[in-house]
Amino acid sequence: YPEDIELKDYREYHIREQHPDVIYTQNAYDRYNYSYVLPEEYYTSELAKYTEELVYVPGFCIGSCDPEDAKLYKTADYFVKIPGLLHADRIILESEEVRQFYIQNLLEFCGGDTRDLWEKKLEVSQDPCCMEDKKYSEQEAGGLAEWCKLLYDKNGKKRRIILYQNTISSFARQPERMLEKLRRVLEVFYDNRADIALIWRPHVNMFAAMELLDREIWLEYRRIVDEFRMAGWGILDETWDATLAERLADAYYGDPDLAVLHFGNNGKPVMILSKNVD
Question: What is the separation of C-alpha 189 from the centre of its chain, rounded to a whole number of angstroms?
Answer without folding.
Answer: 23
